Amino acid sequence: MADIENQVAVAHDNWVAFNEAWASTEHDEYVELADKCDEFYVGNQWDDATLEALGDRPALTINLALRTINAILGHYSTSRADIVFKPKRAGATEQQAQTLTRVVESILDENAFEHLEKQVFSDGIIDDRGYFDVRMDFEGNVLGEVKITARDPRTVILDPNATDYDPATWTQVIVTDWYSLDDIEQLYGADKAEQLRNYAEMGRTYGTRSIRFGEPRTERTQSQAEQKRVRAVRVVDRQYRRLAMVREFVDLTTGDTRPVPQHWDEARIASVKKMYGLAVRKRMAKRVRWTVTADHVVLLDEWSPYDEFTIVPFFPYFRRGKPAGVMRQLISPQEQLNKTESQNLHIVNTTANSGWVLEEGALANMTEDE
Asked: What is the mean pLDDT of the chain?
């Protein structure tokens, strides 16, 4: 019973942190802006209310924003940087550097990184923000391999207290998305999916921001059973820093430190100490805690196997916690161009062939109709 209460408390804390971050970063406003930027890029630059008000008057779209963004993307494609390692620290060799370079090239090639990088770059230019997610994946290899994906920036919530571009200075990052119960069962087990189903049937949920019920239609057209069917669940994936006692290897010659992996036993630690002449120390340090919840259910709550967050950002501009891209700067000029040209065309249409003004009796050998 105590364990269940503790799990519910963890899920509640995660839900509160998610809502606070969402509100503090004005994520609703960002999602709305990102959607508008995407629409402007593809040429949907007039909203329905404005078109209805215009009636039969012209609504031109002269998409200079698309040409500007494509020019930036074209410049990027011709100036991409390659990753190359160079020996810099004492004891490093050119052969080690070349080996690391080849390893990274292999990882990037396996992940089709050129495509991913272009996607994240365009997300940043158009939507203000782009994100990689870098982590180990064991789906295709039981020993694990590096997996790099591009995250939809609408699903990533920045640390409200972030003032620096580098995520190493952030206290947290949250990724949230909607999952079906089948997705939950596949990723986290049938028992977790069943717990969510039970909470939904009992009506003990955080509301429609947490769980969506039935088909996406009006409730009047749904049966009572359909209204209670769980259609999607919001999963809150939060990585955050907490103080913890850690152990580190210390090189007594250079003073360099490296964390001792948490899963190592004492025999393995002693073996490494003896082999490389290292010491081990304990100290309080910040570690990354990884908590994943869905409504009242904890899907994952443990120390992260990574030293840093798996989310790697790209912001074209970043000023004291405020990311900015290029498209948002083009919206107002684009709207002005569209409206000005549309008005000019309207004026031409209403004045051309609208008739002639003449003095009475000035016509000779023709009627006014002619």
From this structure: 89
